Amino acid sequence: MENAHLRFGLLEYIRVTEKASTRIRLRVDRYIGEDRQAHLLSVFGNDSDVGAITAAVHEKAAFSLTFPNGETKDVTLGEHASCYKGAVTLPGRKLPVRHLLAVSQYLHSNGSAGQTILLRYRREEAWATLVSFLGLPADPTWAEHILGIVEGKEEDRADRRHWLRACSNFGNDGRSA
């Protein structure tokens, strides 16, 4: 695949102490987050760099994230983040490439903290998730209207009571009562 590296972002960690300065840069394959809060980071690099980033995640460090389009933002995974490490063996390389998947506590407990993060948004999956996690007695014919409300909001943090009220406004035919 030609120019595949252009689709990767860049994660940079800088730590300055009294005696030393450390700068580590890894390639980012996947990122999910909102504002400064990162929920998922997938990075590749050598063994020592991945180990250092793992330690920094557990220390609740902030990272500089550069997206493929050049946009930059500072992110952190917050407290109690989980790290999963692996190795990818590539033909022609003596040592494997190390992979780190860092997941925030928020994403790790997805749905139980009062908010659900969809890793990819599809309307039918969003409706099933909304109904399932909130325990709503909802008819599939209501999906179009309720998801229209959700999609119209910049940030939706509604709880179960809010959605029960919204659903109670509908008759059996899926229209507003």
β-strand percent reads 25-35%
Q: How is the biggest beta sheet arranged?
A: 7 strands, antiparallel
Radius of gyration: 21 Å
Distance between the termini: 55 Å
In helices, the fraction of residues equals 25-40%
Number of helices: 5
List the helices and strands in order. EEEHEEEEHHHH
Strand order of the largest sheet: 5-4-1-2-3-7-6
The rough form would be described as elongated
Strand tally: 7
Based on secondary structure, the structural category is alpha+beta
Mean pLDDT across every amino acid position: 82
Flag low-confidence runs: 172-177
List its salient traits.
177 residues, 5 helices, disordered C terminus, 7-stranded antiparallel beta sheet, alpha+beta
Annotate the secondary structure layout.
Blueprint lengths: L8 E8 L4 E14 L2 E9 L1 H12 L3 E5 L5 E5 L5 E7 L8 E7 L1 H4 L14 H12 L8 H9 L8 H9 L9
Antiparallel strand pairs: 1-2, 1-4, 2-3, 3-7, 4-5, 6-7
Question: Any overview of this molecule?
Answer:
A 7-stranded antiparallel β-sheet has the order 5-4-1-2-3-7-6. The protein is built from 5 helices and 7 strands. It has 177 residues and is an alpha+beta fold.
Summarize the structure.
With 177 residues, the protein is an alpha+beta fold.
